[in-house]
Amino acid sequence: MTSKSAMADNKENMPLMTPRSKAVLTGTYTWINFEHVVSRPKNGGADNDRVGCFSCGDREQEDEEAPAGHVEEQHDTMSYNMSELATWQAFLMLKGSAWDNEGLWSVMLRTCMVATLTAFLIAVCTPDPTQVRQEKFAKLSTFLNVFVGLLLSFFMSSSMLRWYNCVSAFLQLFDAVRNLQMQCHALGVCRQREEILVRYGILSCWLLHLQLLEMAKIEHTDQGENAAMEIVWKEMMDNHPGLCLPEEQVTLAQTYEPAQTVWTWVASLVGRMALDGDIPGMPTPTYGRILNIVTTAHGAIREVRAAACVQAPFVYIHTLAVLVHFNNVINAISFGMVWGICLGKFLHADEMSRRREQRMYAREAQNLFIAFCLSMLGPFIYQALLEVSVCIARPFSNEDAMIPTVRLLKGLERDL
């Protein structure tokens, strides 16, 4: 068996791809040939700074030739002062909160209209409003409030868990790119191949981010997945020039999961490096550790897609939403009945009875206020919790729960 030192001495005389490595790279384990991205310098390594699309020299030249693309700023939902939320200043923080939602106020406006209509019918169309029994509706609304609150707590808990899993998987992906670069530094991998590995890692992160954003827009537009992927590649090539070669873009555009395919290329290049002696061989623990980093990144992409794209069953969410809206209607009718009874007593009473029953009117006003708090504010909070849960369950479709992947990606690029 040839020793590692002998392999290093004969490295310059070796062909670019040995028959064994060529069989590994062009077989069923990969979809790309690295001959167009890996070239050995003939002047003893003097051209290392010019090899690899992620090298500093090439990026500087590209910046001079063409202006860098503009990356759209993203609302950062994780940057806020938590200590201010413990004070009354939280009442003034409306931007990005649950109350800054047009859908919430639209639903509650309809609920108030139902309560007003019910009160008008009882106060005007009923001969004796005091004969109306509102207690049964109150019992029904109390039962629904408890049942709906329990279901909403489960849904919000699962939504937050999915959101945290998605963020955690993104961070695992970024850490995998950093760990891969750290291993290359520790093993003394040549600069050109280290830059290719790092470029592929960042390329997969941007592809995953852009693909999730465009796929989330499909539910609001009529465009299909093919049109969404065309937009992804246009933004990638315009805003991140040099990160993906044209021939690589042609190959990745034919795949359904380009971000995961890139890590398959990384695994193939790692195998090539092991065959060429750039890193320890395949039977060594070091090689297994590097492949474990690649596997972690591949699994992190799968977890991100599962947390962001796999929704809860429609039958569960539909049942929960219908119960919340039905509870709003029942509580609105219950409050409308109390309001109509109080208003009817005042309209049907003569002047003498009004003077005698001023204290009773004060009690009725108190009952009306309590009924408003129980039958209107309670459902309003439940509706807000439903809106928040649905918002959190779609981290790439709603700005208020958007994961700040752009900030994290820019931090990753600065570190690398």
Query: Which percent range fits the helix content?
Result: 55-70%
Note the main sheet: none
Spans of at least 5 consecutive residues whose pLDDT stays below 50 are 1-70
Radius of gyration: 32 Å
DSSP strand content: under 5%
Q: Kindly name the structural category.
A: mainly alpha
Give the number of helices. Answer: 14
Shape by Cα distribution: elongated
Beta-strand segment tally: 0
Note the run of SSEs as H and E. HHHHHHHHHHHHHH
Q: What is the first-to-last residue Cα distance?
A: 37 Å
Quick check: average pLDDT?
Answer: 77
What does this protein look like?
This protein is mostly helical and 416 residues long. The protein is 68% helix and 0% strand. It has 14 helices and no strands. It has helices at residues 4-9, 19-25, 56-65, 102-125, 135-187, 191-217, 225-239, 246-252, 258-276, 285-309, 314-348, 351-356, 358-393, 405-415. The longest helix has 53 residues, at 135-187. The chain is elongated and about 100 Å long. Mean pLDDT is 77; it is low at 1-70.
